[in-house]
Specification:
This protein is mainly α. It has a domain of 134 residues: Tetracycline Repressor, domain 2, CATH 1.10.357. The protein is 74% helix and 0% strand. It is built from nine helices and no strands. The relative contact order is 0.11.
Length: 197
C-alpha cells in the first residue's frame, strides 16, 4: 500500500526549515539548496510544494504574521478589564521572550526582501492595517471616553504602539540575550498610564 503523504504538513515543515535558516544565518542563508538539504527532500520534491524561493519566502512571511496573531490567543482570553485587554494585546507584539526575539530576526529579513517584492509588501501593509484597527479598538475601549477607534488621538496612540513594537523588534536583534525585555515591559506600563491620562 503506498504511503499517504500529508502535503500541507510538508509545506509547513519546509516553511519551518526556511525560518530556522533565516534565524541562524539571515535571508541569504535560506537558498533553495540549503532548504532542500535541511529539509531532507530532493530538489524536485521541494519545487512540487514551492516553485521558487519567493514562494517559500511569502509562505514564511505569512507564517510569522499568523504566529504573531496566534500569540495573542495563546495568552488566554483577553481580560474583561479593557486596560488589561490592551496590555495583553500590546505585549503580544513585543519581543519579550526568546521565541519572539528569533521571530524578529525572520521579520527583519522578510521586511528587507519585501522592499523589492510588491506582493510581500502588500501582505505586510494589510497586516499593518489590521493591526492598527485592532489596536485602535482596544485603545478606545481602555480610554473609556466613548471615542471612536478612528478618533485622531486614538489612531495616534495606535501608531505609537506599532512604531515602538517594530523598533523593539529591530533593536532586540542587537541584544539577542533579552537584555531589553525589562525596557520593553516598562514601556508598556508607561503607555498604559498615558492612555488613561
Amino acid at each position: 500500500m503506498p504511503k499517504i503523504i500529508d502535503h500541507d504538513q510538508r509545506r509547513r515543515e519546509i516553511v519551518e526549515v526556511a525560518k530556522q535558516l533565516i534565524i541562524e544565518g539571515g535571508f541569504e542563508a535560506a537558498t533553495m539548496r540549503s532548504i532542500v538539504a535541511a529539509a531532507g527532500y530532493a530538489n524536485g520534491a521541494l519545487k512540487r510544494y514551492f516553485p521558487s524561493k519567493d514562494s517559500i519566502i511569502a509562505a514564511t512571511f505569512q507564517s510569522v504574521l499568523a504566529e504573531m496573531n496566534e500569540r495573542i490567543g495563546e495568552q488566554g482570553p483577553a481580560p474583561e478589564d479593557p486596560l488589561e485587554a490592551l496590555r495583553h494585546y500590546v505585549e503580544a507584539a513585543l519581543p519579550l521572550d526568546q521565541y519572539r526575539i528569533d521571530s524578529a530576526r525572520v521579520l527583519l529579513a522578510l521586511w528587507e526582501h519585501s522592499v523589492a517584492n510588491e506582493d510581500l509588501a502588500e501582505l505586510y501593509r494589510q497586516h499593518l492595517r489590521t493591526w492598527r484597527a485592532q489596536l485602535a479598538e482596544r485603545i478606545a475601549a481602555a480610554r473609556g471616553r466613548g471615542e471612536s477607534p478612528d478618533a485622531p488621538e486614538v489612531m495616534a496612540l495606535a501608531g505609537e504602539v506599532i512604531g515602538v513594537s517594530i523598533g523593539a523588534n529591530v533593536t532586540c536583534l542587537m541584544y539577542p540575550d533579552g537584555t531589553l525585555i525589562p525596557e520593553h515591559r516598562a514601556y508598556v506600563n508607561r503607555f498604559l498610564s498615558h492612555v488613561t491620562d
